[in-house]
Amino acid sequence: METEDIRSVNGRSYRILSLLGRGKGGYSYLAEREGRQVVLKQIHHEPCDYYRFGNKIEAERHDYERLSRAGIRIPRMLDLDAEQERIVKEYIEGPTVMELLRRGDDAGEYLPQVRAMAEQARAAGLNIDYYPTNFVVQDGLLYYIDYECNDYMEQWSFDSWGVKYWTRTTELLAALERA
After folding, report:
1. H helical segments located in the chain
2. Residues near 4 by Cβ (< 8 Å), separated by ≥ 6?
3. pLDDT in tens for each of the 179 residues of the chain?
4. Whole-model pTM?
5. At the top level of CATH, which class does the domain 6-90 belong to?
6. Where would I find the beta strands (DSSP E) of 23-146?
């Protein structure tokens, strides 16, 4: 018999249902508490050759606040446990843009929404991570489900970098092969 995977966040217990994904900063799990599904993110300290981190949990809090002020559609942060380096956020159910692309669907209908987010981010002096695994579609609306953001640099803007992964480009096809 398997034992349940229970994680605590500020004294509240969450039952882990499945691993949603691993990113540069942590592991995201689909979790449940009192019949409500949420995302529980556990910060990790695994090396990342192409990205430098400071205090990851504080960066998550700070980035969430910056994205909220910028008006980017993101899941609400429900709790943050700095000591255990865990975050609980709203679960946005739906396919990621990468899942749509992987099954051969066209993400073109979501380009106006991601371009609007890119403009909101730029106006706030930010870039978000435009990689398609970071966007979920729910009821026709696009959500940026990661909290990562950085100070704006043109080279990392949607039009300079992100768009390469939203259509059937050589960059996207290579990424699909690696996955």
Report:
1. 56-70, 97-102, 111-123, 170-178
2. 15, 16
3. 567 899 999 999 999 999 999 887 899 999 999 999 999 999 987 765 655 666 889 999 999 999 999 999 999 999 999 999 999 999 999 999 999 999 999 899 999 999 999 999 999 999 999 999 999 999 999 999 999 999 999 999 999 999 999 988 889 888 888 87
4. 0.90
5. alpha beta
6. 26-33, 36-43, 77-81, 86-90, 126-128, 135-138, 141-144
